[in-house]
Amino acid sequence: MNNILILGAGRSANACIQYVLKNAKTYNWSVVVADSDLETAVKKVGKHTNGRAVWLDATKAEDRQDLISRADVVISLLPPHMHVDVAYDCIRLKKHLITASYVSKDIYKLSDEFRNSELIFMGEMGLDPGIDHMSAMQKIDEIKARGGKITAFSSNAGGLVALENLTKNPWRYKFTWNPRNVVKAGQGTAQYLENGKFKYIPYNRLFKEYKLIEIPGYDEPFEVYANRDSLLYREAYGLDDIPTLSRGTIRYRGFCDAWNALVQIGLTDGTYPIMDSDKISYHELMEAFLSKPGRAGASVKERVAEMLGESEFSPVMKKLDWLGLFSKKKINTPNATPALILEELLLEKWKLGSKDKDVILMQHEFEYELGGKKFQLTSTMKLMGVDSDDTAMARLVGLPLGIFAKFLMTNKIVTAGVNIPVLKEIYDPVLEELKAYGVVFQEQERVLND
């Protein structure tokens, strides 16, 4: 195999592209990077002799299939909903496919077709999902190999920004990944297991019912809100009979209460358009969400605070005010949903500065029984980015894709079908190489019943 096609050159593609191009020189690969923004693709390929940037509208099937037909391995960094079309192309054209996105039910339905064609589809080979699977499975298998029985497992991760870059930002948050996914985060119902019982948190309570965790090296705890479905991986992780299992997203203190206010107001709703949204101000929008008249003479800000059960100058209200939600500035976006209005406002307020450093935090916590004792093992990873171009997020999404592609191209991975990286033949070599890029987990263990 000599030809790799990378579909997409966006925010998270840089580390993957650079890794593949670096190895292309060693293995004499030909690398094509395709994107609808040709200028971006050209910039990321640079003058590398083994690389070529091409323009592609991935929705045009013939153009997409023409590029796929010339590749041996396809790495798709396209939006998740496009992976099904690419998967069908790869089956018909006999090509291997790797993505960082969650594997959908529609993709799983293609398992037999990939397996019968002796093709590999590797999904969830990124950060979260991806590195979380691999690092968790490595410890789970180690504990089981020693004879331990795992009784509780939690896995939490978050893409944040270094605190020194947030001194003027009361939210202590900026975008390090897809803004739309941030606005939509948590919609649906979160599910997890606690002491053998199923637990459900609907969206309207999700950001109110967060928990706190400690992370080594930080003076204050972090907030964690539950991921949508923590139960998806019980079988994949070999934890079918575990009584306690949860996955969550990490944020700095103060974020969840303020985001909960946006949810309660209705600003994360993307199901309907705001009438004349291009003609009204943010102040008028907020007034439109107030169904009760409030006390005489009260301002819109005071009435919103009352609706939320906050004081006018509470930390939550200061965050809303800082976003500009009570300003007389026009929205200027026609037929916009509340979620789109919020997204465009946040794009302006939460944009990474050129010298901002993002930070990825991931922490697994295991409780297990061994030799009549109960243990708690905490495994924590922290990685800092360099600047807004070389982010930790892009590295940890892109590097696993590139590393897996190298193993696939050099015939070191042979398990056909639709998979996620929970197999030892995958997670051991990928995690070992990631150590050279700073992906190292620090462990702390203690006896619970000594």
Task: Tell me about this structure.
- With 450 residues, the chain is of the alpha/beta class.
- It has three domains: 3-123, Rossmann fold, CATH 3.40.50; 131-258 and 355-392 and 441-447, Dihydrodipicolinate Reductase, domain 2 (2-Layer Sandwich); 273-336, no CATH class.
- The protein has helices at 14-27, 38-45, 61-69, 83-93, 105-108, 111-116, 131-145, 179-184, 203-206, 255-265, 282-288, 300-308, 315-323, 338-349, 392-409, 424-434; strands spanning 3-7, 30-35, 51-55, 73-76, 96-99, 120-122, 149-161, 189-194, 197-202, 211-213, 222-226, 244-251, 358-370, 373-384, 417-419, 441-447.
- Strand 1, helix 1 (14-27) and strand 2 form a beta-alpha-beta unit.
List the helices and strands and how they pair.
Layout: E1 3-7, H1 14-27, E2 30-35, H2 38-45, E3 51-55, H3 61-69, E4 73-76, H4 83-93, E5 96-99, H5 105-108, H6 111-116, E6 120-122, H7 131-145, E7 149-161, H8 179-184, E8 189-194, E9 197-202, H9 203-206, E10 211-213, E11 222-226, E12 244-251, H10 255-265, H11 282-288, H12 300-308, H13 315-323, H14 338-349, E13 358-370, E14 373-384, H15 392-409, E15 417-419, H16 424-434, E16 441-447
Parallel strand pairs: 1-2, 1-4, 2-3, 4-5, 5-6, 6-15, 7-12
Antiparallel strand pairs: 7-13, 8-9, 10-11, 11-12, 13-14, 14-16
Helix pairs in contact: 1-15, 3-4, 7-16, 10-13, 15-16
